[in-house]
UniProtKB/TrEMBL annotation:
Name of the protein: Small ribosomal subunit protein bS16c
Family: Belongs to the bacterial ribosomal protein bS16 family.
Cellular compartment(s): Plastid, Chloroplast
Domain of life assignment: Eukaryota
GO biological process terms on file: mitochondrial translation
MF terms (GO), sorted A to Z: structural constituent of ribosome
Record key words, sorted: Chloroplast, Plastid, Ribonucleoprotein, Ribosomal protein
Pfam families (UniProt xref): Ribosomal_S16
Any Gene Ontology CC annotation: mitochondrion
Length: 93
């Protein structure tokens, strides 16, 4: 199973995190399947590759609690919902 979770980077007392798609059985700093974003809690900055995140979510990837909150704040789930409703509209017509 694939999860979207945080991978710690940066130096001591100055942590920044990459948001990565990674196998559940891998360590926190283990090999990831793809980097999909960046989160800096100190400066409150977030950069997301929304297209890649939506692709992973459509394939069944599950975000962890913290990543879910970050994605919700960025509006990724709304984009995913709009994409699905648009695809249903195309299929029905």
């Amino acid at each position: 199973m694939v999860k979207l979770r945080l991978k710690r980077c940066g130096r001591k007392q100055r942590a920044v995190y990459r948001i990565v798609a990674i196998d559940v059985r891998a360590r926190r700093e283990g090999r990831d399947l793809g980097k999909v974003g960046f989160y800096d809690p100190i400066n409150n900055q977030t950069r997301l590759n929304v297209r890649t995140i939506v692709d992973f979510l459509e394939k069944g990837a599950q975000p962890t609690g913290t990543v879910h909150d970050i994605l919700k704040k960025a509006g990724v789930f709304e984009k995913l919902r709009l994409k699905h409703s648009f695809e249903k509209l195309l299929i029905t017509h």
